[in-house]
Structures are given as structure tokens and as C-alpha cells.
């Protein structure tokens, strides 16, 4: 037996990319632990990372390229060589380009981020403006809200110097373990943490003050805080006068949201709103920690998020020490990425429906209506999809989307697992995990790692970027950066840092970049803000342009979603909130890992005990959740951390997917983001089974 070696890798399951120490023997992974001796990580990993061996050696891993032999969606495949796979892709994509134009092919990325720049280059070289990603449901709407006000990419809170942290709905103990230690330390340092969360989450529980609004009412809450800050003259008058546009109209608008009125809308006691506003405005510097999802997963999401972000502008907490601070280079107008959707004369999908997305710009096409565009409701026919990690379960009406995917002339998906989305494909490509490739990881403090390949890729699985490089060569597509090897591509990315792949290989734990650009604060003193007015815009001139055509307002107006008929009529009296992160789940991916699957053996429908009593549903009992769009069955779990009148279900579960309950049209008009976290339902008792059926969790 060969001796055990430790390889310095990183976990690729989520974007935290925690460093891992992998013990390897005879080419097999023996154990996985948090990476030691890493100055920017504390050596801990979450339950998902700890189950890495079950992720890598999973029985559903795809090990070879496969070609469909049965009917579409039947899931019958035959092993083929990479050469044959490339040949088919080349033939079919070129055929579609000739027949329908390059725009008929969509280049799509699921959650993983690491390969995205290469996929974008592939789309550009092919000539399609339709590079789009899972970010049509995640992060970009928050970023868009930010950009509409501050003109640059979203700025994180300066946790080192802040005195008040307004944690507006990030449940980081469950969703971003890498931040947990820093967050925990804030309290010891005397930082006042205010949590805004619809539930008393584990993270909110640690805060000094907790506000618990109804889902999707965050805009009203933030506007009421602004009401207090302005009426009590706690705002930063000098900053506002010099650097802010639209203050008068905004101040007039927030008058409607007195704390008392906001209490009616949000369910947060008026005194708490006043208290939070005073602390945020007076105990400065203050900053806001935001979520990529919870505030923007509503049909009023972008405006609610803008109302939240506006609080930084009126209190002078933008780009100052301890406030929300610009990253180096982030104040400059957008780079190569920013031009993406404008490289092409052909408009991208989503441009007509969501123009603000493109004007600000969000740097990629908007695929919120992908299913409808495939069905023929787009600007032109969509005939092919080249996807890396497409998973239909993330979208509202997932089964319908999968059926649409089956109608495409050509659909190829690369994934680690043979997911149901892959089963709808003509061609399936085997991707490898982060433990089977070298990868660049950039951490805080200008720390850069080139992770080590712990083991060789299983079967014939491949690193997606290497695959794209080879495929582009095979297709004769030219690209400045992807024409060499994977290593040359990595060196290109590293260039500004002053590091090289060769050097990093000698330092498996990582190195500090040679060229470090230190951020300079108070960018607004040196240069105009990159908005049409040159100032921070409380009234967005970009958004106001679409008032007539799309009904979009420049002010962060609050829109009451509960006015919708299904709720008002009383037929669906409960608010449906889905997808709050669970520590052991990662969208629709982790159910196949035995260690994790056993932690929660059945689909849970979380309800408040008083709703349980009101609707005659006992804890553990089977319960049917019915919405105007569909119904699913799960098991009731009483949850006192959430508000009465709200039902919460995790998403992505085959056989009980919460996304079947949400209609396609339930979308934010600015971003197209689905209203995952505030739709309507009713609950009905099912049969009184005592045992839970674990086979329901088969994916
Ligand atoms: N374990 C695990 N970690 C993950 C993921 C995963 O699937 N599993 N996914 C990753 C991804 S893609 C993302 S986007 C992030 C998201 O991670 P987070 O930003 O933490 O988002 P969530 O967990 O969806 O929600 C955070 C909190 O928002 C609250 N909330 C829900 N609706 C509302 C609302 O309308 N208003 C307010 N104020 N609060 C609300 C919930 O109660 C929850 O406690 O997590 C990432 N990390
Ligand atoms: N109801 C509801 N729906 C939601 C949400 C919600 O809160 N509620 N959240 C939304 C959000 S914020 C997000 S981000 C989306 C996420 O939704 P998805 O993008 O579907 O996320 P995942 O299922 O994590 O990943 C997609 C696929 O990528 C594959 N994959 C992983 N690593 C690699 C790799 O290196 N290469 C390749 N080729 N494939 C890989 C995985 O196996 C998986 O099948 O879901 C959205 N959907
Ligand atoms: S938080 Fe967990 S899943 Fe995410 S990278 Fe770290 S160990 Fe992996
Ligand atoms: Mo996300």
C-alpha cells in the first residue's frame, strides 16, 4: 500500500470554496478535512463538505460522454467517446447557426461560477448574445438594485470597522459558513447587530435587535426607517446635498410610511422600527449585510432591495470606513463583461421584457422566461442549448421547463450527475468535481490559491474549462485567451496579480498576490458616480425611463403583493415562502448523499403551530399544500421561528418540488426574478401516516 498523502484542495459544492485537506492513498480519497494553515480560513467545513467522498464517489456520477438512444426525456443513453461527442456538438451547433442564426443557441450555466468566463467566451466566439446563467434567479437582482442607486457593482459591508451591522436577511450560519467566525466575533467587538428576517433564524437569534417582517414587505420596512431618519433629522444633510440625486421626491414619498402604517404592512412593531432607524443613523459607521436571494425573490423584490440600499445613501455610509465599501476597481465603468450583451447587433433574450437588466447592465442575457422563449414566445426561435449544470428544478413550473427542453433541436448538458434535467438532453457530458482538478481560488486579503488535484478525474470526466478549450479548437472557433492550454488560461487570469501557475504550484496553501491594489475610500469625492446624473440616485433615471412602457418607477416604491386575487379572495390565505437554506441541502443536489439525506427523511412543510391548530394539522402528519398553480404533499413540521400565516418549504425536491406551486408569470417586472418567497397557498390534512416515506427523496 502506498503512503497517505495530503493534497490541498478546495470544496466546489458552494461558492465559499472552503480549503480542504484531502488524504489520498492509492489514488483514492481516504478522508476530507478543513484545510489547515490557511490564513483566511479557520479550518472548518460544513456537513456538505464533510460528505465530499459521497459527492465524488456517488453512484449517479456520469463517467463518460453519453448520447441519447431512446426517446427524448426517456433517459436512455449510450456511451460514446469525447471525439464523437465533439463531432456531434460541432455538427449540430453549426447546423443551427446556419439555419436559424447564432442567437438560436443559448449558452447556459447553472449555479457553479468557476467556469463561467470560459462559457461566455465560447458564446461570444460562436456569435450568440445568449450567454445566461442561474443568476437570472440569484444575486443579479440585488446587484441591479444597487447599481441603479450607486452605479457600480454591489459593495460589501466593511465588517472590520463597522459599529452597526444591519443584517438584512442573510442566514449565514446556514448559507455562508465561511463568514460565520467573523460574524460571531462582531458581538465581542461591541458591534450592534440588527437582524431583519422573516424568521427568528439561528443567525438572527444572535443579533441585538430582531425585526421580523412578513415576507416581501421589506420595502415598506426600509421606507419607514427612512421616514424616521428624515423626520427626526438624523440623515447626513451635507452628504445628501452634495452627492445625492432625488432626495426631495424620496423624502416626500417616505412620508406615507410612518412606523405605525409600516407596522400594519410588515407586522413589525412601530417602536422596533423607530429603534432600528435611530441606531442605524446614529451609531455610525453603519453597514448593510445583504442576501443574494431573500429580498429579491419577490414580485416587488428589486424595489424592496432598493429601499433597503437607499438607507446607506441618506446616512452617508456609502464608501466610508465601516460602511459599505467599494472594491478596488469597482468605481470604474464596467469592463469587458459590461459590454457583453452589446457586443452583438442581435438583441439578447430578455432585452425586451427586462430592459433595465441590460441598461445597468447585468452583464448577461436574462433567461427568466427561458421556458416561454423555447415555446416560441421569444424574440426569435430558440433551438439549441449548450449547458453546464442546467437544473430545471430551480425554476417555477420545473416539469413544464423540462418538457420544453425536450422540444429543442439540440440540447447538451454537462454535469457531475445524471440529473433529471440531463435525462432530457441529446448529449450528456461528464464534468469532474473540484477535487479532480486544479483551480484558482481568490480569497480576501489578496490571497490566491491554485488548488491541487487530489485524485485523477473519475472515468472520462473532465474539467469544464479544459473541455471548452478543446471543443472550441475542434469547432475552429477563435478566442484570444482560450486558444492555448488550461494552464495558459490560468496564467492569463493571474497576470494582474503578479503570480504565475508555476509559482503557485510550489505553494500549495496559497500566496499573497504581488500586485495588490489597496482600496481607496470616499470615491464620491474624487469622481462622479456612474449614474446618469453623476450622483447617487434615490430616484433612478435609468428605471424612470421605463415608466410608460413597463410601469417601472424611479423611486423605490413599495408594491403590495397581497392585493392579488388568490389571497384577497381568502381561497389561498397563507403566504408561501420557499427555499431558505438548510445547512445540509444545496438546491437539488445533496439528496443523493446518504449522510445528508438521512438528516431529514421527508419533504417538510414548515408551519406555525397556531396554523397547525387552525387547520387541524398535527406535527408529523401528511399535509397537502395547494396553490393556484399546483399542489404537493409533504409532512408538517411545527416551527415557532416563523410567523403565523406563513408556510415554508425547501425547494428542489423531486416528487415534492415547491417550484411546482409557483406560476411562471409570478415575477418581478424589473428583474424577472420569480416570487419564490411570497406566493399563496392553503394547507389540507393528508392521511394520518406515522412513518415517513423516504423513497420520496430519491434525488
Ligand atoms: N446550505 C446551503 N447554503 C447555501 C445554498 C444552499 O442551497 N444550501 N445556496 C447558496 C445560494 S445559491 C444562495 S443565493 C445563498 C442564499 O443564502 P441567504 O442569503 O442566507 O438566503 P436564504 O437562506 O434563502 O434566506 C436567508 C434568510 O432570509 C429569510 N427570509 C425569507 N424571505 C424573506 C423576506 O421576504 N424578507 C426577509 N427580511 N427575510 C426573508 C429566511 O428566513 C432566512 O433566514 O445561499 C448559498 N448557500
Ligand atoms: N423555490 C425556490 N427556487 C429557487 C431558489 C429558492 O430560494 N426557492 N433559489 C434560487 C437560487 S438563489 C439559485 S442560485 C438557484 C440554483 O439552482 P441551480 O443552478 O439548479 O443549482 P444547483 O442544483 O446547485 O446546480 C446546478 C447543477 O450544476 C451541477 N454542477 C455542480 N458543479 C458542477 C461543475 O463543476 N460542472 C458542471 N458542469 N456542473 C456542475 C450540479 O450537479 C447541479 O445539477 O435556484 C433558484 N431556485
Ligand atoms: S460551506 Fe460547505 S459546501 Fe460550501 S464550500 Fe464550504 S464545505 Fe463546501
Ligand atoms: Mo443563489
Write the layout of secondary structure elements.
Elements: E1 5-10, E2 19-25, E3 28-34, H1 47-50, H2 52-56, E4 66-68, E5 77-79, H3 82-100, E6 105-109, H4 116-126, E7 131-133, H5 140-150, E8 164-168, H6 172-175, H7 180-188, E9 192-196, H8 202-205, E10 209-211, H9 218-231, H10 237-243, E11 244-245, H11 247-254, H12 259-266, H13 270-282, E12 286-289, H14 301-314, H15 355-359, H16 370-377, E13 384-388, H17 398-406, E14 410-415, H18 420-423, E15 427-430, E16 440-443, E17 447-450, H19 464-475, H20 486-494, H21 501-506, E18 511-512, H22 523-526, E19 536-537, H23 541-544, H24 547-550, H25 565-568, E20 574-578, H26 594-597, E21 604-607, H27 609-615, E22 622-627, E23 630-638, E24 646-649, E25 679-685
Parallel strand pairs: 6-7, 6-13, 8-9, 8-12, 9-10, 11-19, 13-14, 14-15, 20-24, 21-23
Antiparallel strand pairs: 1-2, 2-3, 4-5, 4-15, 16-17, 17-18, 20-25, 21-24, 22-23, 22-25
3D structure, described in words:
Keywords: 4Fe-4S, Iron, Iron-sulfur, Metal-binding, Molybdenum, Oxidoreductase. By secondary structure, this protein is an alpha/beta fold. Among the domains are: 5-56, Phosphorylase Kinase, domain 1 (2-Layer Sandwich); 156-314, 3-Layer(aba) Sandwich (Dimethylsulfoxide Reductase, domain 2), CATH 3.40.228.10; 561-696, Barwin-like endoglucanases, CATH 2.40.40.20. 30% of the residues lie in helices and 16% in strands. The chain has 27 helices and 25 strands. It has a seven-stranded mixed β-sheet. The chain has a six-stranded mixed β-barrel with strand order 20-24-21-23-22-25. Strands 10-9-8-12 form a four-stranded parallel β-sheet. α9 packs antiparallel against α12 (259-266). The longest helix is centred in the N-terminal third of the chain and has 19 residues, at 82-100. The two termini are 36 Å apart. One ligand MGD binds at residues 12, 110-112, 134, 137-138, 293, 297, 388-389, 391, 394, 414-417, 419, 431, 464, 578-579, 586-589, 651, 658-659, 676. One ligand MGD binds at residues 14, 111, 138, 169-172, 174-176, 196-199, 201, 213, 215-216, 218, 291-295, 577, 579-581, 583, 585-587, 677.
